Amino acid sequence: KAPRRELDAHVRVLRETVENAVKMNRLDAAKALLAGIDEYPICPEAVTMRLRVAYALRSAMRCEEALELLKENDSKDPLNAAAPESLFEMGDILENCLNKPDEANQARIRLVTNYYGENDFVERARALVKGDPPEVPKSKLILLDESQGESSVFDRWAGGNCGSSQWIGARVLIEKGFTVHTNGRIQGKRNIPTPDILSRYGLVIMHGKYGAVAKPPLPDALIDDLVSYVESGGSLMVIAAGPDLGEGRGAEFYNPLVNRFGIRFAEGEKLPQIASPAMAVSSLPMGDPFEFDPCGGVEVESKDGTMLARYGPVPVAATRLGPCFPNP
């Protein structure tokens, strides 16, 4: 396996070569070069490179070819920071270049359905949608909250890293029939979810704070909003990185939140890197996609590290690759 520096260099050279081909109006060469990025299927630059060539093809009135590249983006990496822009351009080409208004409307409906609402391309598509988009059942709608500057589904490089595993996990949820929104790094906004936004989701996942990035602390107002969200029937999953990642402060970052549910993630213990504690609280049965068993016991601890308790009437499950303990 090539080291990261080497893989990054490959991608950089490929991106620059594609860009130069576009600038020289050698669009067939640019299209051919895109085959090289398929060697790096999790690399986020793939979407932006295809989008760049698609814009150039459209300017040359080669709209069918542009559309094929955008469809490739849609199928291969829907969890990309540039995916909403790519899907918006798909709708625009279908309507204004290929005269297929019905297909354009379907693309825009997917855009407003499958992506976090506080996004300029989603808002623009919503204004163009004809008819009412189908409403995703709340039980099938998941928010990956990345408003605290966490590691993100967008943090991927050609060889794989922590963000890659989050991307893979989100894709698994999508394959299981869930709609997954992420609010990370949208047009430079922090996008802290409001109570109204939280209420739209059946499950909110907090994840990805690890090492030296596990600061500043979670805002008290957000903690209060998340507790109210659970008390109103929402489901919350919190995943803290293991203590050996970076400065090992992931548990410290999330404990002010999970403490409110009678759970404490152990801090400072030296465990294997894989030892990442996770907690879920839910007013609904917690089965697929997460293998928690809300049997309703109180502080029951089993040999495999699963602890079950209750937050008021709400079942609490904590999985323990790293140690999770109830508050004293």
Task: Label this structure with key terms.
two-stranded antiparallel sheet, alpha/beta, 40% helix, 328 residues
What does this structure look like?
It is a single chain. The chain is α/β, with parallel strands linked by helices and 328 residues long. It has 11 helices and 10 strands. An 8-stranded mixed sheet has the order 2-1-3-4-6-9-8-7, sandwiched between helices. A two-stranded antiparallel sheet has the order 5-10. α1 packs antiparallel against α2. The radius of gyration is 22 Å and the shape is globular. The C terminus is likely disordered.
Tell me the layout of helices and strands.
Layout: H1 4-23, H2 27-33, H3 45-59, H4 63-76, H5 83-96, H6 101-114, H7 120-128, E1 141-145, H8 162-175, E2 179-182, H9 195-198, E3 203-206, H10 220-231, E4 235-239, H11 250-258, E5 263-265, E6 277-281, E7 300-301, E8 307-311, E9 314-320, E10 324-326
Parallel strand pairs: 1-2, 1-3, 3-4
Antiparallel strand pairs: 4-6, 5-10, 6-9, 7-8, 8-9
Helix pairs in contact: 1-2, 1-3, 3-4, 3-5, 4-5, 5-6, 6-7
